[in-house]
TrEMBL record:
It catalyses: ATP + protein L-histidine = ADP + protein N-phospho-L-histidine. The keyword rRNA processing does not apply. Residues 1-102 form the HPt domain. It comes from Anaerobacillus arseniciselenatis. This is Chemotaxis protein CheA. The keyword Kinase applies. Its EC number is 2.7.13.3.
Length: 706
């Protein structure tokens, strides 16, 4: 079995496990929701079939037991009770552990498997037997056995759906006894014309079962719509055959019986034929465990339309993006040369060259957007991970909490999602532990017993915003302020806004918790959260109101690779200001420049006063432009804060590739990275959120004339 086959199986199984987790949580809220029951049944059925096809019997067995429980719920003979939910989550955890750890044979989880069986046994469900017992043929027609004739005609491209028709025959044995299986070979082409990706056989099957037609149809639940599957009840005719002394066995022999043992032998012969084809170089035997996509979301239950998808290795995407980055650098170089070259040419030639360049620029941007979109994935899968965590933590803390997810369809760079997952997890855990009150406390405050935590994602000004909102107790700003004083994080003279006090929670070692818990409150973690978000060029803001709740707002770039920026000059150096932070450019007049207490400089801009910063001071760059009126002021904005920054000259808008500078130089406050310009020189990219913090801490440095 190839590594590619195993990797595909693992990926598909993890996708179905995500469906199970979401479905089990939704069924706890709405146990009668038939769509979710069908969804989790399909996902479990697919895991069972895929594991069986790959030969991973332990996974297949666990999924089979859980599927039996879900099948009883589908049939209405059982309900999705708390006990069933507990068993389902135990089974889910076990399957996920085996897949995540690569323990596909279950060698390290025997104890957990036995415990799961005990749980299901406590629900009075037999798990050590087949759901449908196979009984011996008998001459007594009074037994409640039905006889069915099945015509199975599959589409040639059925393999592309991840379905193995032979596995469907095996599954029929779980609902009854196979009496006869006739293969129709009329459509099988000559050996040299065989297409290894096409299925050419069809079957006629005679089945004895105590199940109904609907129960038998469930075996073909994934292929009924696309294939010709006919199931006829021939019980009345079969009973006519039983009249007289002729027994079932004699009847079947007379009609050319094909027993289960014969089928096993036939399957073995099919394998031998496959080996012959492989040796002849006609067929390369493949097992593709690509499983059904119908279970990937609840929406797929309601619609049979599925988008065509293809798996692309991340490394390949990164290579494309790297080449595209070099293309952008080369484009910038060509633009520089063209601009210089056409200055000495005729106007018509200049116009033609520039028009051609603009067309190339347009095409490059389109290609760039398309390629970057391939690395974008919805954040919903990450959000869904927290549903189970919140459920379990709420039970542990004896709280009642609903997790509401909004904006699950919002796309974000896969790398950003991977790096933001752990910080989000910590913030959600913190909201459960410290934010939401116990039910009794909430009722005493006039709140509903059940608290709410919201996870929101949406696009804003070329960035993505993620919000964690709870309707809990809020942040005690006085307690935070006092704790910060005790830890010497601030001085008594500091005048802090509510937002600045709330952000003290993200200082290293800061905690107001009186009790250390297993969930949070250890005085570590939030500072790491802040560091991780800053590494993503993100910004965190915290808004809170006592007894009303807390909102944590995280603003992140859509991608870590390429940004649109404005190139500016300070002295002899060039810098890139990210475009999404820029509001406007102004040329300040003398009357607009004011001093506060003779120290801090502000700019009077229309009906407001904007703090001023000379970038040459913060960045330590030599320049003759030192007064706000000497150069150009860029009005930048970060959330609700504005600032005017002084530069010598605006050079123009550029799309630049971000290069990390951590390996080559020490981390500098206010610098997010670097880029290579068209002339081969390097320009530093400004970290605007950090500049706001630096200018606040160093007000004495930003007044001109010092």
């Amino acid at each position: 079995m190839s590594d590619d086959m195993i990797e595909t199986f693992l990926e598909e199984t993890m996708e179905n496990l995500e469906v199970l987790e979401e479905g089990f949580i939704e069924l706890e809220k709405s146990p009668e929701d038939k769509e979710w029951v069908d969804s989790v049944f399909r996902a479990m059925h697919t895991i069972k079939g895929g594991a069986g096809l790959m030969g991973f019997e332990a996974i297949s067995e666990i999924a089979h037991h859980l599927e039996n429980v879900l099948d009883q719920i589908r049939e209405g003979s059982s309900s999705y009770s708390d006990e069933v939910a507990n068993a389902m989550f135990r089974g889910y955890d076990l399957l996920k552990q085996m897949v995540s750890d690569g323990d596909l044979e279950g060698s390290t989880v025997q104890g957990k498997m036995n415990y799961l069986k005990e749980l299901i046994s406590d629900l009075s469900i037999e798990i050590n037997k087949e759901t449908i017992s196979t009984t011996n043929c008998t001459d007594n027609p009074s037994e409640k056995n039905n006889f069915y004739k099945l015509e199975l005609n599959f589409q040639p491209d059925i393999f592309e759906t991840g379905t193995d028709p032979l596995m469907l025959i095996y599954e029929l044995e779980e609902v009854g006894e196979l009496l006869q299986v006739f293969s129709k070979t009329e459509t099988v082409p000559e050996l040299r014309e065989l297409d290894p990706h096409q299925f050419h056989l069809s079957w006629t099957v005679f089945l004895k079962s105590t199940e109904s037609v609907e129960a038998i149809k469930n075996v073909f639940i994934f292929v009924l719509d696309e294939n010709d599957i006919q199931i006829d009840d021939i019980t009345s005719k079969a009973h006519e055959w039983f009249k007289g002394d002729r027994g079932t066995k004699e009847l079947l022999i007379t009609n050319g019986t094909l027993t289960s043992q014969y089928i096993e032998g036939a399957f073995e012969k099919l394998k031998n034929v496959g080996m012959m084809l492989e040796e002849a170089g006609i067929l390369q035997l493949q097992k593709d465990s690509s499983l059904q996509k119908e279970t990937s979301s609840k929406a797929n239950i309601k619609s049979s339309n599925s988008s065509n998808t293809i798996r692309v290795e991340t490394e390949k995407l990164e290579n494309i993006l790297n080449h595209l980055a070099e293309l952008l650098i080369a484009q910038s170089r060509v633009k520089s040369l063209v601009t210089t070259g056409v200055q000495n040419g005729k106007k018509e030639q200049q116009r033609e060259v520039l028009n051609a360049f603009e067309e190339v620029d347009k095409i490059i941007r389109i290609v760039q957007e398309e390629v970057m979109n391939t690395s974008m994935i919805p954040i919903g899968a990450t959000f869904m991970r927290f549903q189970r965590m919140v459920r379990d933590l709420a039970l542990e803390k004896e709280k009642e909490i609903e997790l509401v997810l909004n904006g699950k369809e919002t796309d974000l760079d896969k790398k950003v999602i991977e790096q933001i997952t752990d910080p989000l997890k910590h913030l959600v855990r913190n909201a459960v532990d410290h934010g939401i009150e116990l039910p009794e406390e909430r009722v005493a405050k006039g709140k509903p017993r059940e608290g709410t935590i919201e996870l929101n994602a949406f696009h804003q000004e070329g960035s993505i915003v993620i919000e964690i909102i709870d309707d809990g107790k809020g942040i005690d700003e006085e307690a935070v302020y006092e704790k910060a004083l005790q830890k010497n994080l601030i001085s008594p003279e500091d005048q802090l806004t509510s937002e600045e006090i709330n952000l003290l929670l993200f200082k290293p070692g800061f905690s107001t918790a009186n009790t250390v818990t297993d969930i949070s409150g250890r005085g570590v973690g939030l500072d790491v959260v802040m560091t991780n978000i800053k590494n993503l060029r993100g910004v965190v803001n915290v808004y809170s109101e006592k007894d009303k709740g807390t909102t944590i707002n995280i603003k992140l770039p859509l991608t870590l690779a390429i940004i649109d920026g404005m190139m500016v000059r300070i002295g002899d150096e060039r810098f890139i200001v990210p475009l999404n932070f820029i509001l406007e450019f102004i040329k300040a007049e003398e009357q607009q420049v004011l001093k506060v207490e003779g120290k801090e400089t502000i700019i009077h801009l229309r009906n407001e006063y904007v703090p001023y910063t000379g970038l040459h001071k913060i960045l330590n760059v030599e320049t003759d432009i030192k007064k706000p009126t000497d150069g150009i002021l860029i009005i930048i904005k970060n959330n609700e804060r504005k600032m005017a920054v002084l530069v010598d000259e605006i050079l123009g808008q550029e799309q630049v590739v971000i290069k990390s500078i951590k390996e080559n130089m020490e981390q500098t406050e206010g610098i997010a990275g670097a880029t290579i310009l068209g002339d081969g020189n390097v320009a530093l990219i400004l970290d605007i959120p950090t500049l706001f913090n630096v200018s606040t801490k160093n007000n004495e440095k930003v007044a001109y004339g010092k």
